[in-house]
């Protein structure tokens, strides 16, 4: 019984869906760390763009550090799922690549990278502290060099490191490590305390990129020292997280690859993606056409339904093209007929203002009582799918 509970819990993750039972065709031998273990590859996935997850599910060796060091839940989610999206190019799920959380970068190693690099008196103090506490100390920090431990205003660029492993089929019954994705999360704002006063410094975007490339190069060189990772392709992606007050997540800005056996990254390729919040001055300035369209959509709802309390939207752009739009419509609830009428009206206006079939749309109509209606339209679909909650 316990075995089935573990399997069902792991399969409830966003990345995979479970069939009622596993047949023999799902059982494979997983070759890793010079060992062979039995594993299961679920046959079902939520969509063709999702990876099947290797089971039993293994948590990442350094997974807790990502949650510790990213500013918002939005960044935490986007850093992980965005890295998986980028993995589709070098390790496509349609070509029988399967996902597993990173098993090779250990917590102590990553935690060491996130520190400053110490020299002078700062290094002496840290070494003494480690000796007095009988702990090991490695001056492995990939953030800037400091000689004074009080120099908290020195920016920390590296915020977190995330590893993902992708397994590929050797034959019908065997899978092996086929590639590694490494996400390097960078700060856009440096938060620190000076004389017990909280302060912050906005970091220059070009410097963030420059420091990120240097940090990524060092991570790849040290990662290659692990014999298990010596001959697999490694793709690294730079992610810039948003400030703590942001209502949209950060974005990946560049990626590079180290060929099997090589410790060198072969140039950087820009990633053009961004997030916008509607309505906002930033969206009005950066995406004026879409901001105006959203404003007209919002005004029409207000003209016909006085009990709605506002409309907000979060948009995701790739290569300057709108790819995903999530809209929240809160309303004062007075009856189910009003919910039905509003939902029908919104569907018509979606087709009028956002007819492009390459946009993933999700509209949530809510009240103080909870979710009232959900409207979704996947890219490529002509008609939306609607559900009104009872």
Automatic annotation (TrEMBL):
Pfam families attached here? CamS
Q: Which PROSITE patterns match?
A: PROKAR_LIPOPROTEIN
Signal among the record's keywords?
yes
Would you indicate the residue range of the signal peptide?
A: 1-23
Q: Keywords of this protein's UniProt record, alphabetized?
A: Signal
**Superkingdom of source:** Bacteria
Q: Could you confirm whether the keyword Signal appears in this record? A: yes
What is the protein name given in its UniProt record?
CamS family sex pheromone protein
Q: Which organism is it from?
A: Metabacillus flavus
């Amino acid at each position: 019984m316990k075995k089935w509970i573990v399997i069902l819990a792991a399969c409830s993750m966003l990345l995979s869906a479970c069939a009622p039972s596993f047949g023999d065709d799902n059982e494979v031998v997983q070759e890793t760390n010079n060992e062979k273990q039995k594993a299961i590859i679920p046959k079902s996935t939520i969509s063709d763009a999702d990876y099947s997850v290797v089971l039993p599910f293994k948590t990442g060796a350094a997974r807790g550090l990502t949650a510790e060091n990213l500013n918002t839940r939005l960044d935490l989610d986007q850093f992980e799922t965005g890295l998986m999206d980028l993995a589709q190019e070098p390790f496509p799920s349609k070509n029988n690549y399967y996902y597993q959380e990173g098993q090779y970068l250990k917590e102590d190693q990553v935690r060491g990278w996130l520190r400053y690099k110490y020299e002078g008196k700062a290094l002496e103090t840290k070494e003494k502290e480690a000796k007095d506490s009988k702990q090991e100390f490695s001056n492995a920090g990939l953030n800037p060099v400091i000689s004074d431990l009080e120099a908290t205003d020195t920016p920390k660029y590296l915020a977190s490191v995330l590893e993902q492993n992708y397994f590929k089929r050797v034959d019908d019954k065997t899978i092996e490590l086929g590639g590694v994705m490494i996400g390097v999360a960078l700060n856009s704002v440096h938060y620190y305390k000076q004389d017990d006063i909280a302060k912050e410094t906005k970091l220059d975007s070009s410097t963030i990129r420059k420091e990120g490339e240097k940090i990524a190069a060092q991570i790849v060189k040290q990662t290659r020292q692990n014999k298990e990772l010596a001959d697999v392709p490694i793709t690294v992606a730079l992610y810039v997280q948003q400030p703590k007050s942001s209502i949209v997540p950060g974005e990946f800005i560049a990626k590079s690859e180290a060929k099997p056996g090589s410790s060198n990254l072969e140039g950087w390729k820009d990633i053009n993606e961004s997030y916008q919040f509607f309505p906002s001055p930033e969206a009005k300035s950066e995406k004026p056409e879409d901001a105006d369209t959203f404003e007209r959509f919002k005004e029409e709802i207000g003209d016909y339904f006085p009990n709605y309390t506002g409309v907000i939207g979060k948009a995701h752009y790739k290569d300057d093209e709108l790819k995903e739009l999530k809209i929240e419509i809160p309303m004062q609830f007075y009856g189910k007929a009003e919910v039905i009428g509003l939902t029908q009206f919104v569907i018509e206006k979606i087709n009028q203002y956002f007819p492009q079939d390459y946009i993933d749309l999700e509209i949530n109509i809510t009240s103080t009582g909870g979710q009232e209606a959900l409207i979704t339209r996947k890219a490529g679909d002509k008609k939306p799918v609607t559900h009104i909650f009872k």
